[in-house]
Amino acid sequence: MRDRPAQPACAPLALRPGRGAGWGRRLSLAGAALAALLGAARAADDLRFFRIGTAATSGTYFQIGGVLASAISKPPGTRDCEHGGSCGVPGLVAVAQATQGSIENLLAVGAGQMESAFAQSDLAFWAYSGKGLPAPPRCRAPGEPAPSGLQLLKNRGPMPSLRHIAALFPEVVQIVVRDDGPIRGLRDLRGKRVSLGEAASGTIVDARLVLEAAGLSECDLKPHYLRLARAVEALQNGEIDALFLVAGAPVPALAEIAALLPLRLVPIDGAALEHLMGRPPFFRRDTLPGGTYPGMDQPVTTVAVTALWIVDAAQPDDLVYAVTRALWQDSTRRLLDFANPVGRDIRLGTALVDVGVPLHPGAARYYAERGLELPPSAAR
């Protein structure tokens, strides 16, 4: 296994240069055509828009969101699936929308400001139930955003209308340092300059849990709260000593910098690992294989949660059924396998595993037709 926007970034697909670049250019042209269509046909009755909240444009959420947005879109006038055209939802135009991450996504879906989004399974459960959210640090760390995303989630209260379409892929807790630096274990983070992620990201919540498991808090560090691209740049320039990231691996931004600068992943093992196994039930032990990133040849023990595709219960059953059906088309499988190594982890057989919110009835209808055993929450 391997996780402001006043003017949000949107894209049907985001690919790194290199393998598949020609395919990416063709999709970019398709994206431009879709954008033109959006402007020309905004008032058309047969056109429906569907946003997928992701995270920073340099991360896995955004890239996978772009692939799925392309897969489920089928604007009016496109060829049918049987004739080599789109196998998406007729009349649907989906876009991947950049956000701060899981917490912002949950709040937006819960408020009806976004049709769907990706979110970590632990945060989705806490948002759905309103229970178990970790407490913020007792001290106020210098530079801590106020109010934090976690506090916003606490203030919002339970969101019982949250539902999921599918469990997608494992999101691995990754702690990245320069290979020539002194940080070898979690305790070595004390007093260091560490990026913990953005205020409304899932990374910052799980980073706090990992620090707690090691007997630390962010107040023992010199914390920074940076977008992924900025954190990677700061690590490269020596402005920070480490960064936390919870994402499917490999993360494009980290893979690019690892090809230029020797990096290392700090393991989560020993007592800290055992402590986390008893924290939210969504953490599980994971190992990043050697070679996940350039120059990192040894496997690294860590923990992971699951990325969920979430919607609100108010989304129409027929729409969610059609989106779920498009997700598991053979054409979508080919896109996911080609675009990103994380895409290969998105499998029908694990679509209902490690979820903390009920299944949307539209998605449940599709999985029942495919013969999958539905979780008890599907009846809600």
Give a short summary of the structure.
This protein is an alpha/beta fold and 380 residues long. It has helices at 21-40, 60-72, 102-110, 121-129, 149-156, 202-213, 228-236, 252-258, 270-277, 317-327, 330-339, 361-369, and strands at residues 10-11, 48-53, 73-74, 89-90, 92-97, 116-120, 162-178, 193-195, 222-224, 242-247, 263-265, 284-288, 300-312. The protein folds into two domains: 10-119 and 307-379, Periplasmic binding protein-like II (D-Maltodextrin-Binding Protein, domain 2, 3-Layer(aba) Sandwich); 170-306, D-Maltodextrin-Binding Protein, domain 2, CATH 3.40.190.10.
Can you describe what's shown?
The protein is of the alpha/beta class and 380 residues long. It folds into 2 domains: 10-119 and 307-379, D-Maltodextrin-Binding Protein, domain 2, CATH 3.40.190.10; 170-306, Periplasmic binding protein-like II (D-Maltodextrin-Binding Protein, domain 2), CATH 3.40.190. It contains 12 helices and 13 strands. It has helices spanning 21-40, 60-72, 102-110, 121-129, 149-156, 202-213, 228-236, 252-258, 270-277, 317-327, 330-339, 361-369; strands at 10-11, 48-53, 73-74, 89-90, 92-97, 116-120, 162-178, 193-195, 222-224, 242-247, 263-265, 284-288, 300-312. The strands form 2 sheets. Strands 1, 2, 5, 6, 7, 8, 9, 10, 11, 12 and 13 form an 11-stranded mixed beta sheet that branches. Helix 6 links the parallel strand 8 (193-195) and strand 9. Helix 2 packs antiparallel against helix 11 (330-339). The chain is globular.
